[in-house]
Design a protein that fits this description.
This protein has 182 residues and is mainly beta. The chain is built from two helices and nine strands. Strands 1, 2, 3, 4, 5, 6, 7, 8 and 9 form a nine-stranded antiparallel β-sheet that branches.
Length: 182
């Protein structure tokens, strides 16, 4: 979670939050944008007018096949908190096929939550959030949510450290902080 407490006590269930670039990590894993057009500061992303933020990346694509098979989701919603004017686009992306726009809307925000219901794409693939900054913008939070509690998901993780226990400890501490903020 980028900024704890943005959507507390609301009748939606966060499935996957959009992660912002972590210091020292390759930003291309999180988003694609023109170099120098985005600044990460204080848990938010500040963007210049005309910037395109493409979150259809390794960490931030929403994989419909996996979520649908393991969590039985319905009523998918995109939820954002931002300052400025944005064109919000959600695309369905599949290998070897041009992206299909599922939703597009231009909105202005002053930090309040904005909700965009998403249509059922009718097929599996990955959802990509694309934001076009129509003026200077600051993104506080974005998440794929549902209005129906998903089926419980149980996961197990196996980690091979290759003698890098200290790096693993730092990663696990970060994951624990994220979990505590949910």
């Amino acid at each position: 979670m980028n900024a704890p407490g943005i959507f507390p006590n609301e009748p939606i269930h966060r499935l996957q939050e959009v992660l912002f670039p972590a210091r020292g990590r390759p930003p291309d894993l999180y988003l694609q944008a023109e170099p120098g057009a985005v600044e990460f500061s204080g848990g938010t992303l500040a963007c210049l007018a005309g910037t395109r933020l493409d979150f259809g990346t390794w960490f931030n694509s929403f994989y419909l096949g996996f979520w649908s098979a393991h969590a039985q989701i319905r009523g998918l919603i995109l939820r954002l908190s931002f300052h400025g004017a944005l064109r919000i686009t959600v695309e369905l992306r599949r290998e070897g096929v041009p992206p299909r726009v599922l939703a597009r809307q231009e909105v202005e925000g002053a930090g309040e939550p904005f909700v965009l219901p998403l249509p059922d794409p009718g097929e599996v693939g990955r959802l990509a959030l694309v934001l076009d900054c129509l003026g200077p913008c600051r993104l506080v939070e974005a998440a794929f949510c549902t209005d129906v509690a998903p089926a419980p998901v149980r996961l197990s993780i196996g980690i091979c450290t290759f003698n890098r226990e200290e790096q693993l400890r730092v990663t696990l501490d970060n994951l624990a902080r994220i979990r505590a903020s949910l």
